[in-house]
Amino acid sequence: MAAMASAKLRALACLLAAALGAAGAARHVARRGAAPRARVRMSAPPSPAAALGAELDLDGWATRWRVARLAADAFSPERLDVSPSEAAWEAVSIDMTIPRSPDRPGLGLLLVEAGEQDGLGLVLLDGVAPGSNAASLAPGSILRGDVLVSARVPGGPVRSLEGLPYDATVGVLSSLDPAAGGAVLRLKRQRVRPALTVRLEFPEADVQAAAAAASGSDGVVAGPREVTLYAGANLRRSMLARGVQLNDPLARRFDAGIGTGDCGGEGCCCTCAVEVLRGGEVLSAQGTQERQMLAGFPRWRLACKAVVDKLPEGGATLDVRVTPRGFENFYGKEECDVNGKPLYRGR
Ligand code: FES
């Protein structure tokens, strides 16, 4: 979806701000709007420079959401999904009940159509109308750029609004009976996703080369000095995907007992071991096999078995040494398999 003109969005917002009655009135006003509809963004746009926040205009918000039709799987039927367009942001759910009655049925939501394509729609909230039912909620309950996820009346069925085009959205809101009580809404709002900055140390190239020569292997490991990860990321997969040469030529397989080789993330070869210098508390806990394999190396982790767990708001930093056996001050204790046989070959 090409960037929508600000003037058009503002015009729609003004029209809808006037529609403070029932949602049906809003639909009528929207139909009178002459502005052509934009198309829904189907893939991630380039990263906008502006920070998340109330200062962002509707054009900016329209680029920050992505609408998709998710195929059915074993756990859920096909559904529409609205999610942040970049990994640096995440959506949080917000629940609220807007009080209303037959005498005062209007919700007071300012809805703006940001795009429609192939039955998918992006409808943004632009705050609440002054003096409306929604305005009686706590300040900040509804903000510009929020999107509607679902609506229902108390005790009634949940009606999905996520990814619906504008008319369908207004249709669902209009169908909520004001006599049944308040409108129970769920919204999505974006926030900056807590990030983990992983700072990487590599052995000096000449030390690596000497170690590699002594072990009969070749190659010097290298890669970026810093990578950014988010909760749920597997350390090994994420580092390999970012070009970190993780596999240690000095490591031997744990399962076979002889020979070297990358086990492919099965937790059997130890080629992915890293030494965690600081910040390891953000990683998932070790399992029994990993603890056995790294007995005597309390700061090491198998990257293939380490997942970025919950991150504090504001993010965290993790300092690791890649291929720790290659460092000059490697403390030389021998890695053993579960039967006590040394795995470390020395150099
Ligand atoms: S890749 Fe083999 S133990 Fe991690």
From TrEMBL:
Keywords: Signal. Residues 1-25 form the signal peptide. PROSITE patterns: PDZ (PS50106). Residues 95-188 form the PDZ domain. The keyword Signal applies. InterPro entries: 2Fe-2S_ferredoxin-like_sf (IPR036010), Beta-grasp_dom_sf (IPR012675), PDZ (IPR001478). GO terms for molecular function: iron-sulfur cluster binding. It comes from the Eukaryota. This is PDZ domain-containing protein.
